[in-house]
Amino acid sequence: MNIRSAKKTDLEQLGKLFDEYRVFYRKDSDLDGAISFLKERLEQTDSEIFVAEGEDQNLGGFVQLYPLFSSTRMKKYWLLNDLYVNPNFRGKQVSVKLIERAKKLVRDTLACGMFLETEKSNLIGNKLYPRTGFKLNKVSNFYEWNVD
Predict the structure, then answer these.
(1) Distance, CA of 6 to CA of 98 (rounded, Å)
(2) Which residue of 78, 93, 116, 130 has the lowest C-beta tally within 10 Å?
(3) pLDDT tens digits for range 29-81
(4) Dihedral angle over CA of 113, 84, 125, 72, nearest 10
(5) Of 100, 2, 7, 96, nearest in space to 55 by CA
(6) What is the spatial distance between Cα 140 and Cα 148, in angstroms, rounded to a whole number?
(7) Whole-model pTM?
(8) Helix residue ranges, H only, the chain
(9) Pick from 105, 16, 8: nearest CA to 58
(10) What value, to the nearest 5°, has the Cα angle with vertex 65 and ends 27 and 10?
(11) Which domain, by its residues, includes 53?
């Protein structure tokens, strides 16, 4: 399993994975929208996307991170926003390898860390993240405001 940066030539396969990811979070399937969204991210270079590629060159998973900044630390801080592994690739440490690549990005960019949010019902993720070094923040409250 090779972990590498996503390329525009990955858009069809990556779009399918992204669409599966969105459906997992109870959004309607929209493959064209998924491909368009990812194409824009790659063209605008406003996120980092890493893919897990099998020996057969099929993509089995991805992780997408967005840069933020910590004012108090005066450093870049990464949001691990999306992590998904196709069910056919699960049980092969793909998610762990994707997280390890994300950690390398944090170190390479001299950032102070990364954070993520997942639903309490995401049993797989809630077991995975502590196993890969993430700590549950029990000190802060997380608030959200949405337009819709």
Answers:
(1) 12
(2) 130
(3) 999 999 999 999 999 999 999 999 998 999 999 999 999 999 999 999 999 99
(4) 20
(5) 2
(6) 25
(7) 0.93
(8) 11-24, 31-44, 94-108, 123-131
(9) 16
(10) 75
(11) 2-131
